[in-house]
Design goal:
5 helices
Length: 188
């Protein structure tokens, strides 16, 4: 029997059409292997289409539509990148509500590439240090974030990484962070 440090924990993946498929699937696979229950949340009905390389990727089923979700129902949040996905999610008021809940509650959040921009839609980044791709840095600084020179940063319960080059390290750090967050929540 293998050790599953995230058994009993539910992780929400917030995605829309055009999400970066590799960032989602690699993270999802690692979380499932660690025993977590993984749920996809989206404004899309039924299926959501990933972006893989230079074109559309695979379709993935949605577990819940974003309008019906409460952040309190999830222990951890993952925000994969993908310009199209992030642009659509950023315009959705429910995204702000969910991200705000996680920031207010101090629950673990892992955001990579364009997904980091979703942290900035909730005006709660003052004093937080984030890694971010160059294109996102001005908006995140305006939202109050301190910007790290590193391409990956953990600040309390928030993990940010600049992109696919950091994916393996991002997944490993996400498991560590989520495992620690799980231990803290279990002790409370």
């Amino acid at each position: 029997m293998s050790y599953q440090p995230l058994a009993g924990k539910t992780v929400a993946f917030l995605i829309a059409n055009g999400f970066e498929e590799t960032e989602m699937t690699e993270s999802q696979r690692a979380l499932l292997n660690a025993g977590a229950q993984v749920r996809t949340i989206s404004p899309e009905p039924g299926l959501v289409n990933g972006w893989l390389g230079k074109g559309w990727g695979h379709f993935f089923p949605i577990d819940r539509q974003i309008a019906t979700v409460l952040g309190a129902d999830y222990d951890m949040l993952v925000l994969p990148g993908g310009e199209r996905s992030v642009a659509k999610l950023a315009l959705n008021a429910h995204t702000r509500r969910i991200v705000s809940h996680f920031l207010d509650a101090g629950k673990p959040i892992a955001a990579i590439d364009d997904g980091i921009a979703l942290l900035g839609i909730a005006p709660k980044l003052n004093g937080r240090t984030l890694a971010a791709p160059e294109a996102l840095r001005p908006a995140l600084a305006e939202a109050g974030a301190n910007l790290a020179e590193e391409t990956m940063m953990t600040d309390g319960p928030i993990l940010t990484a600049c992109g696919l080059d950091e994916l393996d390290a991002f997944v490993a750090e996400m498991l560590r962070l989520f495992g620690e967050g799980s231990a803290v929540q279990n002790a409370a």
